[in-house]
Amino acid sequence: MAGYDGPKIDPREVPRRSLDGLAAGAIEVVVDDWTAMVKTALAGDPAQFYAQITELLAAAGSR
Fold first, then answer.
1. Phi first, then psi: what are they for 28, rounded to 5°?
2. How far is Cα 49 from Cα 37, in angstroms, rounded to an integer?
3. Separation CA 31–CA 42 (nearest Å)
4. 13: phi then psi, degrees, rounded to nearest 5
């Protein structure tokens, strides 16, 4: 991920949230906002998803 300039989750959060989900009996654990947004968007209108992704990528590119 060295060349990736977008938002990143603290690597310590991945096992922490995963273990919390396991302890809670979750069958799936989503540990970061980006993945949660994509997962939610997959159930909706693809046009809205692509517009949101385009906007997020443009904002990340202007940094």
1. -150, 140
2. 9
3. 17
4. -75, -30
Task: Map tokens 């809205």 to a residue.
Answer: 48
**Cβ atoms 3, 60 nearer than 8 A:** no
* pLDDT confidence bin for 7, thresholds 50/70/90: confident
Q: Which DSSP state fits 24?
A: T
Tens digits of residue pLDDT in 21-45 = 999 999 999 998 888 988 888 888 8
Residue 10 identity (one-letter amino acid): D
Over 90: is that where the pLDDT of 62 sits?
A: no
Which residue, 46, 44, 60, 49, is CA-closest to 5?
60
